Amino acid sequence: MRLYNKPAHVLHDMLVSGEITSVQLTQDVLARIDEVEGDVRAYLTLTRDEALAQAKAVDAKIAAGEPISFLEGIPGAIKDNICTKGVKTTCASKILEHFVPPYDATVMTKINKENPVILGKTNMDEFAMGGSTENSGFFPTHNPWNTECVPGGSSGGSAAAVAAGTAIWAIGSDTGGSIRQPASFCGVVGMKPTYGRVSRYGLVAYASSLDQIGPLTRDVTDCAHLLNIISGHDEMDSTSSDVPVPDYTKSLVSDVKGLKIGLPREYFVKGMDPEVEKTVRAAIDQFRSMGAEVVDISLPHTDYAISTYYLIAPAEAATNLERYDGVSYGERVDGEDLVEMMTNTRSELFGEEVKRRIIIGNYALSAGYYDAYYLKAMKVRTLVQQDFTVAFRDVDVIMAPTAPTPAYKIGAMIDDPLQMYLQDACTVPVNLAGLPGISIPCGFSSQNMPIGLQIIGKPLGEETLLRAAYTYEQSQNFHQQMANLGGKEA
Amino acid sequence: MKYEAVIGLEIHCELKTKTKIFCGCATGFGADQNTHVCPVCLGLPGVLPTINKRVVEFAIKAGLATNCEINKYSKFDRKNYYYPDLPKNWQTSQYDLPIAIHGWVDIDTEDGRKRIRLTRIHMEEDAGKLVHSGTNIKNSLTSNVDYNRTGVPLLEIVSEPDLRSAEEARTYMEKIKTIMQYIDVSNCRMEEGNLRADVNVSLRPVGSETLGTRTEMKNINSFKGLEDAINYEVERQREVLEDGGHIVQETRTWDPERGMTLSMRSKENAHDYRYMPEPDLPPIVTTDEQIAKYRDELPELPDARRERLEKDYGLSDYDAGIITGSRASAEYFDAVVAAGADAKLAANWMMGDLAKNLNAENLTIEQSPVDAKRLGAMIGLISKGTISSKIAKKVFKEMWTCPDDPEKIVKDKGLVQITDTSAIEGIVDEVIAANEKAVNDYKGGNKKAIGALVGQVMKKTRGKANPQMVNKLLAQKLNG
Amino acid sequence: MKVTKDDLDNVAVLSRLTIPSEEAPQYIEQLDKFLTYVDNLAQVDTEEVRPTTYALPIQNVFRDDVVKPSLDREAALSNAPLKEDGYFKVPKVLED
C-alpha cells in the first residue's frame, strides 16, 4: 500500500492505530522522491538520514505506548527561507549557498516540538521574489500536473512537493500570493494567515510588512491542524499578534448556511482566463446551493494594488537584502577593497529578478523620489485596506480566483517582468491589508491543470475561512486527485 | 572682515542598560571580541529586533531633563548605508518622529548664562568596531570586525547651531554629561566612548543671519579634542575665507596627534540614507500620564540644585555651579552638610583641599579617601572650636591616609585647640616679656604690631591656641 | 524616458551593484516601463490619507532589560567567509 498520497490526518490515525509505522511512511515518501523528484525538483536540500532517524524515534515512542501529537512521525518539508538550525538555508540564492543558521525560526521550534519527520528544504524563487520558482538561483521546479509548467511561486517547491506526494505537508511563506498562487497551480490547499498570526522570527525577510508564514497541505483538515501548531504570539516578533489562538480544528464543520460571500467585481475582469472564471463561478454557485448568500461588492482601489505592492515590497526588500554583502556570512566574491568586494559579491551572486527589485526599491526610496513613489504607495495601501474594511461590514468572506490563469509554461513570462507582476492582481491586495486568505482546489482546466478558489477573511478570521473551505471540500473531490506524473503511479 | 563661528553638536550618549537596544545580549565593555553577539545583533537572515523598554524610559527621561517635548507618537526608521561595522548595512535609528524634540539647556559663558536649544533626541543602535591590521586605516590591507558594540543603545542629542566658540561647545557638552549623569542613564565614560560628539562648524560675517557652509567632524571623544578640533577648524575656515576661497561641505576627521582636521575624500557625492520606517518595530505611543510619571521619577536636576544651594545656604552662584557640576559632587556636598557641617565651609573645603588632593592623585570624588561623613565631622570640629582652620588642614591631611574619625585623629595627635584661658595666659605673659620692641611699638600706636605677638603665641602652642582668644588676651594685657 | 543612465548609475551605487554597460539599456527600459505603470498611483487622491507603515495597529511592544545568553563565538563565526583570531575579516576599508 502506498502512503505518500494520503493527508496527514489519515496517516496520523493509521500511526495511532498501529496500522503503519513512521519508518514505513517515511520510506514510502522517500521512495516517491526517488521516483519523481528528478522530474519535479521540489527540494534544494534533502535530509534523508535525519528523516529516518526521526521516524525511528517516533516508532519507538509509539511502541512504548506513549501518545503522539498530530504531526508526530509524519514527513513534511520546509521552504528554504525559514531558518533551520544546523541545516542549510539558502533562500534559493547563490549568495547563501552554504549558509547554515545557528538558530531555529520560531515556527521550526513550534513544529519540532511535534516531532515530525523533516524531509528537507524546498525550492523557491530567490528570496521569495517571483511567482513561478523559475527565479531560483539553482534550478526551476516543475509542476507535478505537467512538468513543462511552472508550479507557481514563490513557495513552488513546497506546493509541488505536496502535490507530487514527495511531502505530506509543507510550510511556505506568502508576501504577495506566494503560498496561495502555487497552491492554486498545484491543486493543493494553501493558507496565508492574518499578518501577525504566525511569528516571522527566522523567516528570511523579503518584505517585512507583508511576509507571513503558512501551511500547504492536501486538504483543509490538515491546514487547520498545521495552523494550530504554527500560530501564536512570539516575543521575538514584535509584530506578532497576542490574540489567543483558537483550536482551528473546531472550525472543520460542514455548514455555510447564512454565510455572506462577497464577490469583488474588480477581481473578475479582462485578462482572466475564461476557464478560470467559469470554474471559480461554479464553485461559488456551489456555495450558494449549500445555503450561502452571494453578493456583488466593490473594492475600488484594486487597480492600484499592483503598483502599491511593487513599490512597497521592493523598497522593503532593498533594505532587507543590504545585509548580504560578503562580510560576516554568506558567500563572498573578492575585490581590491571593501566596497569592491561587497559590490562584486552582490552583483555576481544575486539573480536578475532580485537585482531588478533592489534597483526598483532603492529608486523608490532615494532622495527626490521617496514622496512620489514610496510614501504615495504607503498612502494608497491605506485605501486598499479601507476597501476591505468597508466590504467586510456587509460580508463574512470575499471569494475570488487565486490566480488569473492556471499554471503556465516554464519560460512563458520570464522576459517580461511587468507582465509577471500583473499575475498577482488577486493576491497582493490581501497582503497589503494583512488579511487571511486561503486557496483551495476548485476544478481543472481543459488541459487538466488545477484551478484554485481564493477565500479572503477578516483580520483573524481564519476560522470562518476554514469552515467555508471545509464545507466546500466536503462537497467535491478535487483535493483527493493527485498528479499523474508522467505515467508514474499516483 | 570679522567672522563668528556657528557650531552645533550631535552628542552620542551610550545608555547604561544591561542589554542591547534590540536584543538580549549584554552591553558590558571590554569583553573578548564577538562574544556579546547573537543572531539578532549579527543581523543574520531572518532575525527581528525587539525594543528594550529601559532604552525608551531613559530616552524619555533624557528628553524631560533637557526640557524637551516628548513625541507621543514615535517610531524607528532604517538609515541605510554600507559599512562592515553595521551588519545589516542599515542603522536602526529615528528619523522624522524622534522620541523628544525642542528642548534646551542653559550654560555659563563669559557673558553670563546662555540658552542652547536642542533640536531633538533620538534613540539608535551603536555600530561594531573595526580593528585595522596596519598602523592606520589607510595602509591596512585587511580589517577585522568585532560586533560586541553593535546594538548598544545610544541617544543622539542634537543641538541647534547656537554655540559660538570652542569653549561654549565644551561647556555645553559638559552640561549634557552632567545631566545624563544626574538622571543616571549613562556612565558617560569618555575613555570608553560612552560620550562622543559630531561637530558642525561654519563661519559667517559678524552680524549676518545666514549660515555659512559647514564642515562636520565625527566621533570626537574628549573635551580637549572637542575644543582643539573646533579651534583648528574655525581658524582653517577663517584662512580659507580670508584668502577669498570657499568652504567645501564635507566630513573631516580630527587627528589628535597632529592637531589638525583632515578631509575625508568623499566617494559618493552625498550620502543618500534612504530612510524608511522600520516595519519590524511597532510605534511607541506615550501618554501624558506616563510622561508625568517619568517626570516624577527624575532626580533634582543640576540647575534646580544649584539654585537651591544658593537660596538655602547662601552659596555664591559660582560655588553652587561648581558643587552641582556633577551629581556625585552635589551628593557629596549634601552628605557633608547632613553630617553637621556648615554649608559655606563645606563648599570651601570641597573646592579647596579636597579638590586639590583629588586632582593631585587623579581621583574622582566617589573615590575620595575622605568621605563626606568624615569631612562633615571635621568641619563640625572647626565650627565647635575644637580645632582651628589651620589645624584642620593638618587633620585633613592625616585623614587622607588614615581612615580614623577626625575626632580620634585630633585626640591622638594632640591637636585639640587650647581654649583654657589660664593655659594661654601664661604663654601670653611669656611672649610679652620676651618681645619688648613689639610691645613698645604697639603701645606707641602701631596696632599692627600685635600680629607678631599673636604669631609668637601660636608658634609656642604649635598652632593649637584659639587665635581669637590669643588676640583678646594680648589686647587686654597690652591695653591694661 | 523617465530614467536616465545617470539615474541607473546612482541607484546601482546605492544598491552596491554593478550593472554591466551592455545590460544597462535593458535595465533602463524595464525600470522605465515599470515606473510608467506605477504612475497610475498619481490618479489617486491621497491628500487626506495617512500612510500605512505597519500591517497591524500594534504599538508599544517592549522587551524587559534582562540579559539572554549570547552565541558561542564559534557559532557566531561559523558562517564567516573569512575570520581571524575571533574576528570577521574584511578587505581594506577605503573611507568614503
Helix-strand blueprint:
The complex is a heterotrimer of chains A (490), B (480) and C (96).
Chain A (H helix, E strand, L loop, with lengths): L7 H10 L4 H19 L2 E4 L1 H16 L11 E5 L26 H7 L4 E6 L33 H9 L4 E6 L5 H7 L2 E4 L19 E6 L2 H11 L29 E5 L9 H16 L3 E5 L4 H19 L17 H12 L2 H14 L5 H21 L5 E5 L15 H6 L5 H5 L4 E8 L5 E8 L4 H13 L16
Parallel strand pairs in A: 2-3, 2-4, 7-8, 7-9
Antiparallel strand pairs in A: 1-3, 4-6, 5-6, 5-10, 9-11, 10-11
Chain B lengths: L2 E12 L36 E2 H13 L3 E2 L2 E2 L2 E4 L9 E4 L6 E10 L2 E14 L3 E4 L9 E5 L6 E7 L6 H17 L12 E11 L9 E6 L2 H20 L7 E6 L4 E4 L12 E2 L6 E2 L2 H10 L4 H12 L3 H7 L3 H12 L4 H19 L10 H13 L4 H13 L4 H7 L8 H14 L1 H8 L6 H11 L6 H13 L1
Parallel strand pairs in B: 13-14
Antiparallel strand pairs in B: 1-11, 1-12, 3-7, 4-17, 5-6, 5-16, 7-8, 8-11, 9-10, 12-13, 14-15
Helix pairs in contact in B: 2-3, 5-6, 6-8, 7-9, 9-10, 12-14, 12-15, 14-15
Chain C lengths: L4 H10 L9 H15 L23 E2 L9 H4 L6 E2 L2 E5 L5
Antiparallel strand pairs in C: 2-3
Describe what this molecule looks like in 3D:
The complex is a heterotrimer of chains A (490), B (480) and C (96). Chain A is an alpha/beta fold and 490 residues long. Helix content of chain A is 38%, strand content 13%. Chain A contains 15 helices and 11 strands. In chain A, strand 7, helix 8 and strand 8 form a beta-alpha-beta unit. The model of chain A has no long low-confidence stretch (mean pLDDT 96). Chain B folds into 3 domains: 288 residues, no CATH class; 111 residues, no CATH class; 59 residues, Arc Repressor Mutant, subunit A, CATH 1.10.10.410. Chain B is built from 15 helices and 17 strands. In chain B, the strands form 4 sheets. Chain B has a 9-stranded mixed sheet. The longest helix of chain B is centred in the middle third of the chain and has 20 residues. Chain C has 96 residues and is of the alpha+beta class. The two termini of chain C are 32 Å apart. A two-stranded antiparallel ribbon of chain C has the order 2-3. The mean pLDDT of chain C is 92. Chain C has a domain of 39 residues. At the A-C interface, helix 9, helix 10, helix 11 and helix 12 of A face helix 1, helix 2 and strand 3 of C.
